[in-house]
Amino acid sequence: MAILLATLTVFGAYVFGSDALLFSVLGLNPPHLDPFLATMCTPIRSAANAKVKCVYKPSQLICTQTCNDGYTLDDGSRTSSLTCDTYNKWKTGEEFQMCRGSGVMPNTGTGTQTRSCHHIHSVKDCPSDGDFADCHRCDHFISCAPDGAFLRRCPLTTYWDDIAKQCLTKSSTCTP
């Protein structure tokens, strides 16, 4: 019986494979591998300034994000993990926390907020739980929650409107 090894790769910040998924070319799966795991764990985005590596375990997919050199998570660490299993799907959250460099969000020059903006560099800067403008990019916003501050991207061709508190095709609070 032949066993194949597939390698996990990240394309465009999405995870699309596995690092150690073993399966038989004859269609006979090892008894410890749950065949539904690969389809139940939806792809997740890596944070900006980070790399993600995922490993299949007997009934879990564990994805570990490592912040690039010079970047850390809000708690000062450089790594965090998310776990998916066949029973709870992503049981430790469905997105990674932001990796921040020098405690300052880098300016990528992709927009200007047209109203005052509260700079959020870590979870302690969050004014409250909820969604807030990214002061540097119109196509991003920051979600503040008790477990961290998360940089999120609006769908393509939409921009964060901090009054409406949603991504819209035309923002009244940010000029791309």
From TrEMBL:
Origin: domain of life: Eukaryota
Stored SUPFAM superfamilies: Invertebrate chitin-binding proteins (SSF57625)
Coiled coil residues, start to end: none
InterPro entries reported for this sequence: Chitin-bd_dom, Chitin-bd_dom_sf
Entry-linked Pfam families: CBM_14
SMART domains (alphabetical): ChtBD2
Family matches, as PROSITE patterns: CHIT_BIND_II
Species: Magallana gigas
Ranges of residues in domain Chitin-binding type-2: 123-176
The protein, known as: Chitin-binding type-2 domain-containing protein
